[in-house]
Amino acid sequence: MGWQKSLQGSEVSKARTIYLNEPLKNNFCKNSISTAKYNMWSFLPRYLYLQFSKAANAFFLFITILQQIPDVSPTGKYTTLLPLMIILTISGIKEIVEDYKRHIADKLVNTKDIIVLRENVWKIIMWKEVIVGDIVKASNGQFLPADMVLISSSEPQVTCYVATSNLDGETNLKLRQALLETAQMQTERQLSSLSGKIECEGPNRHFNTFIGTLYLNDESPVPIGPDQVLLRGTQLKNTQWVLGIVVYTGFETKFMQNSIKSPLKKSRVEKVTNVQILVLFVLLLAMSLVSCVGAILWNVEGTWYFGTKDYSSHSLGFDLLVFIILYHNLIPISLLVTLEIVKYVQAMFINWDEDMHYKENNIYAIARTSNLNEELGQVKYLFSDKTGTLTCNIMKFKKCSIAGIIYGNQSDKSDIDTKKLSLSPSVLTESYEFNDPTLLQNFENGHPTKDYIKEFLTLLCVCHTVIPERDEDKIIYQASSPDEAALVKWVKKLGFVFTTRTPTSVTIEADTVIYERLSEDSLFMKETLTHLEHFAKGGLRTLCVAYTDLTEEEYQQWLTEYKKASSVIQDRMQSLEECYDKIEKKFLLLGATAIEDRLQARVPETIVTLLKANIRIWVLTGDKQETAINIAYSCKLISAQMPRIRLNTHSLEATQQAVTQNCEALGTLIGKENDLALIIDGETLKYALNFEVERSFLNLALSCRAVLCCRLSPLQKAEIVYLVKKHVGAITLAIGDGANDVGMIQMAHVGVGISGNEGMQATNNSDYSIAQFSYLEKLLLVHGAWNYFRVTKCILYCFYKNVVLYIIELWFAFVNGFSGQIIFEHWCISLYNVIFTSLPPFTLGIFEQCCSQKSLLTYPQLYTVSQTGKTFNTKVFWFQCINALVHSFILFWMPMKMLEHDMVLQGGHTTDYLFLGNFIYTYVVVTVCLKAGLDTLSWTKFSHLAIWGSIIIWMVFFAIYSFVWPTIPVAPEMTGQVNMILVCPYFWLGFLIVPIVCLILNLIWKSIKNTCNRTLLEEVREMESNRVQELNPTMFKMRVEAKNVQMSLASQPHKIVFRHESVDQSTPYGYAFSQVEQAVITQEELICSYDTTKSQGCKSLNKASSGPNYE
């Protein structure tokens, strides 16, 4: 894993010392970053390396060098150099344009504004100008330009909230607290007088660790931990301003340490093509050696008019070079430029696809590179981010259960209910998600559960950590957890409005009387548990709501114990937990809530379709296990009956034991897809990727239908992709929307970025960008499958037509004494690929369709045809070469035998070798064009234009070319050829017979194959054809499904006995909410510090920029 070495090396880099307000002593990395492949100096060498790593380009460079040797080339010095330069220029312009876009994206990041303290005053500078040791001031909503130590903030307890979704994909906000020793340093004078140094560890990629010490002059050292560090790429939220000292910049920031170098990607088809070109090169050498041996034998036998029988070793070497140059067109130089154009047009089709146009934001799909179009049709493993990729990052209240009654199940009711619902707008949330008017009706009409409803709503309105802020008459809710924001906004819509928080009270605009409950035990337990299971099966995030009544005396007694537990030095957390246990008991159950972490449109349907297409889906996320599992259920990746293997260990030995025992439980099923789900967290994965466990872990993962990797760093995501890419040998695709997904997007064979709410880092580093996860269905199953068929057919056809024409030179060598004489006029040879047979490869590469878009989406199993690569491999290549060899044999020897005894033309003239050559050349053009028609599955007007048009173009050219001399001083030997050939009866006889003889075997073979050895593709194509004839399509659908039984992904049930405790086979009931974890101060301390009745204007150093808030 060479891409990891630089990162691993940085982990052990030495500690650094940062001097405060002494910039000349801080000589570290610049803060500018680059994600581009090239710069001004590296473009030429790196681009040339990329181009000449292609076997075809390397070969033609070799031929170009040979042609510069005097008297060696029979075709001139520049016949290969010129087309090679054109190809390199076209490809170079394309690379420059694509990389220029990356430079523009980098420039947008590097030129963002930020405020820093320079020369004792606040100055606005660009991100790239920030240096280590700078004191930075960031405002609400701003992204942080570098890693820095927090020294002060506008909030109580000198805390701040940051959104880390760019780093770990989590939507809940993280709490950070400044050093108390620097909390009061807020003015320019105070900050400028700050003197001392920070000693800290060197740059590394670990987000959750930081070891440092602040040394202020004349004061004791102050330890600095990860709770005092704000990382590059995070966004300041719910905080008016913060101040920080920069410790890492540019590529030394933890965010950039988790990125990987932008790779130079090649498609599998391109790699196979390179191998095929090497095979053709070996064939070319063999042909050259055979011709040299033939020349030796011919000269040894001698002919009286040659005058000599001498044949030296010098002549052998000379002849070998001559024959290599003579046969070099066997490798199609036009193939490269043809593929460039074909792939460019394919990319434009993707860009223009209205089905992948997200009209809400007017975002089209974008093919940022065209080199990997066919790779989209071969994807086997799909690695997906969760937050922002599968979900919308929007929490919506969906349902609830109160006193044993479920509310919110009205979505499937009739239109009449919907119309009634529209009359009660107060019942609806902002997006009309909770659509059950029964709740308020029961509350207002004196239903027996009225008191429970009131208590339920009051509890949700009071028990949370949300901070209300007023913007004129509007209340804005600032929440660290989007779940809490959803609950508070929902009860607000029902009339329970949370308005004010102080250190000792909360205020809501509703009747907050709590009624005494007489029951000793909780009621509705059974009903609520049933509802929880119902919510969980729907993939909703659930929360139980319960209460207990306390007297004032009981509360004051508990409060005394709580204050005591809060002040202990040792085992404070344990003391607090014991204190909580004393009051959190004898709860009376009120009900439960269900919140939807809303999936993007059609995500479940898309995942089901992709699974049917034999694409395995792994979810890689930085979020918690509970959240990831919840989403996996929502999007139908995991079913409730599916056993779940959870790997949560804390040591290498424990990980190895858990993996080994689960592998042993699978037995012979290891390596085969089973109806299992594997769930692993980042800490365990660190041990699972150890070389001792790596292969066993991979075998276990490959044996599961679904894999969920949680709590992953960006680099761990890339490591997972690399693991599969290295050992499985299948095509991988990674899709994500945030900066934390860039590593895996670049590591995968194909990287897809989603234009979401987490910036443009993912799309800027991707190969393809789309606006919605559901568009992946058409991108892979339609564009991917079509592009694979188009590119592979185009490649095979280009090889075929070149072998057909240029092997004829070998057959002619047996007749001309291996003299190196060509049978065709040299400009006709040059224009063969450029004009006369150029159109059929374009129509095959641009317009060919294996079947219709509708069929590809209806029967996703068709994707396996391109996925397995059965239509383009070494076997297919050799079959095509042998077929071309047979055709060339027929195309030469049949006309040769027809003219064996020569013929006398009008005026007594006899024919020459060029007369035979024009015969053969015409038959070749006709045969290869008709062969393109035989290979075409989807005929269009462009197919007819290319095939028949190419034949007509040659005939017209031939007629004109026979009369250009001496008006134009070229090809005097072609003068009058058209008159001689068109009046020859042998020509017209051969015009009908020779192509038919060549193609009749292909036609018979194709008919037998489509009749006796039918695949699913042939079944679907027959169904499409018969629909035109108005036959019953249902019967054909049944035939297709019966034919596809072998390809179904539905696993057969097997008896698997798991004995390890990591396997959970129970039915899930619900999932935890996202909350602030491992906060530097407790939520109680933080919330008690807020008083929203006081003005916060005094907190602001500057007018804070407004960012997105929960409203």
Automatic annotation (TrEMBL):
It comes from the Eukaryota. Its EC number is 7.6.2.1. One of its GO terms (biological process) is phospholipid translocation. Residues 764-1013 form the P-type ATPase C-terminal domain. Coiled coil: none annotated. Signal peptide: none annotated. PROSITE patterns: ATPASE_E1_E2. GO terms for molecular function: ATP binding; ATP hydrolysis activity; ATPase-coupled intramembrane lipid transporter activity; magnesium ion binding. It is found in: Endomembrane system; Golgi apparatus; Membrane. Its main location: membrane. The keyword Translocase applies. Residues 18-81 form the P-type ATPase N-terminal domain. It catalyses: a 1,2-diacyl-sn-glycero-3-phospho-L-serine(out) + ATP + H2O = a 1,2-diacyl-sn-glycero-3-phospho-L-serine(in) + ADP + phosphate + H(+); ATP + H2O + phospholipidSide 1 = ADP + phosphate + phospholipidSide 2. GO terms for cellular component: plasma membrane; trans-Golgi network. It is a multi-pass membrane protein. Its cofactor is Mg(2+). The chain crosses the membrane at residues 47-66, 78-97, 275-300, 320-342, 803-823, 829-847, 876-894, 914-933, 945-965, 985-1005. Keywords: ATP-binding, Golgi apparatus, Magnesium, Membrane, Metal-binding, Nucleotide-binding, Translocase, Transmembrane, Transmembrane helix. The active site is at D385. ATP binds at D385, K386, T387, E484, R541, T621, G622, D623, R711, K717, N740, D741. PANTHER family: PHOSPHOLIPID-TRANSPORTING ATPASE (PTHR24092:SF59), PROBABLE PHOSPHOLIPID-TRANSPORTING ATPASE (PTHR24092). This is Phospholipid-transporting ATPase.
